[in-house]
Amino acid sequence: MSTKQAIDLEKALNDLEELVEELESGDLPLEKAMQKFEEGIKLTRNCQLALKDAEQKVEVLLKSAGGEETLEDFDVEAEEE
Fold this sequence. Notes:
elongated; 0% strand; Helix Hairpins; 78% helix; mainly alpha
């Protein structure tokens, strides 16, 4: 992942966090809340694409290093315990 993509991912995550806070406040009119929700969906998709791209690059690096390692799914529940 390039530096620009990393910065974009961080910015998108920060923007998404701000959107969630705004929506959770309940102070937005319905039309504005719907616009914010739509913007949040777009940000989420962009984050998912950036993370998928990073995962693919890690897999390529692991294979090029000659290792037999494979990526495992990240289990959030196991990490929280």
